[in-house]
Specification:
This protein has 73 residues and is an alpha+beta fold. It is 59% helix and 14% strand. It has helices at 4-12, 39-72, and strands at residues 24-28, 31-35. Helix 1 (4-12) packs antiparallel against helix 2 (39-72). The radius of gyration is 15 Å and the shape is elongated.
Length: 73
Amino acid sequence: MIDIQAIIDNCEQQVCPVHGKNPKVTYEEDNLEITACCEDFKKSTKDVFNEELRQALVEYLLVRPMRERNKTS
């Protein structure tokens, strides 16, 4: 399973390079909300979230099944 909370936690550890603040990230049923100190940091946090989610999906859908098939071969 994909650990959305781990992705959120990682995003919330990001620090705005201008203001030195952390964002607040919530994700509920396909609704991503990011509260940040400025629009640039909000966009950056969203990009981090999307990239980590993409990587988790690749792992879950492609990489893990291939590993499982190789174990049984």
